[in-house]
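Hi everyone, sorry if this is the wrong subforum. Our group has a chain we'd like a structural model of before ordering constructs, and none of us has done structure prediction before. Sequence below.
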Amino acid sequence: MRRVREPNPESGIILSMRIHAVCLGLALLVAQAQAQTLPELGDTSGALLPPYLERKIGEQAMREIRLREPSFLDDPELTEYVNEIGRRIVAASPEARQDFEFFMVRDNTINAFAMPGGFVGVHTGLLLAAQTESELAGVLAHEVAHVTQHHIARLLGKQEQMSVPTLVAVVLGILAARSRPDLAQAVIAGAGASSIQSQLNYTRDFEREADRIGFQFLQQAGFDVGGMGSFFERMQKATRLYENNAPAYLRTHPLTSERIADMQNRAQMAVYKQAPDSIEFHLARAKLRAEQGLPREAVAHFDELVREHRYAEEAGARYGLASALARARDFSRAASEIETVHKLLGTHPMVELLMARVRLGAGDPAGARDVLRAALARAPNYRPLHYAYVDALQGMGQHQAALAWLADLVKSYPRDARMYNLQAKSYAASGKRLLHHQALAETYVLQGTLPAAIEQLQFAQKSGDGDFYQLSAVEARLRDLRSLQAEEKKTAKGN
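Answer:
Right subforum, don't worry. Here is the predicted structure as tokens:
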């Protein structure tokens, strides 16, 4: 039986201190902004922020996390996995009327959190602690329900005199409360919102509502509905073991025996549906575990699992061993383990990505490129393969081939900042200055940094290598971004 991994309180403290610094920076901006009067919408299950404002707050908070939070985990494969689970849940949620984005935070504490506008963070510790995919899905369904029921927005919406920067700082302060409530209180006070500190915890009513709605999402998405109750029950038992160092999830999501019993009763009344774990669940967990500690320690861990047959899925354990061996630069043995995984599993995008990394590490970039191209023929919609393939082409100096490959991708995925950033890199290497600055501007737009995007377009205007049509496109885009920037400043000042 797997044991629940004990949270690492030190990593949680470091994370919250970083968020603390970000929030204090925002608080300084608040002091310069006029208060914005938010509309009072009556008590339709509580005062609500307008949907556009809720999304804007979430986007700005997400921008701060992406740009300034070192624990933000920018791993395409893991991000793709949690978003695939999230998409299944959201697709089964008739109340989900906005876009959702799931992202990972490198933190060993067992936690997840929702922000206004459809942004849901998942700690790596949660993925490692979940014993089944349905347990992980149960937590995500609960967080999706917090978003669809606008719980944070209902709390924030009760404040009639708050600027957007203040609300963003408050949201980030709530995130800081995951590990250090004392820091969160200081952050919120610094943002001029100390009067609402006591109102910004999920109430028991909100938690019960998220349980009930999340349970429905979980069931409609085809997961084992017992996963939600089993995970929360294990967390409650862990509280007794940890005493004053309870799992972070329990500090931010009040848990009672009544809620656990209610979840278990719902599961017993529901029609049982077997929901086996996907291979991606095992591969994602193995990838995370292989990246922990020293390389030799990770190798020893998976060597022991494979030798003693202590695994739920052999292909996952051997994939983890191959990942650890690659970290230890034992590329020959890593390639051998991957061949064993192929025999057990066949081809899989995550396995092919690992094989490409092994080939690259062994000094065979052409081999890595060929592995990725063959994998793309089988899984053309798996974006991490595209990222790795373009990166391989760029590493070999084949920038024209990279640009040709990216041409259709940026049209298919117009909101993918990574695609534009890769494009900018190849334009720069090819000496195409206008196109380089233009692509970099789109990267910054998608990352939420309009001033940097405008600056890049100004550089594009002065590049001296653009034709009439390219310059016209740059000028038109520059007008659009300046207009958008003016609107945002107007919103922030409440004019």
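For your construct planning: The radius of gyration is 24 Å. The first strand starts at residue 72 and ends at 73.
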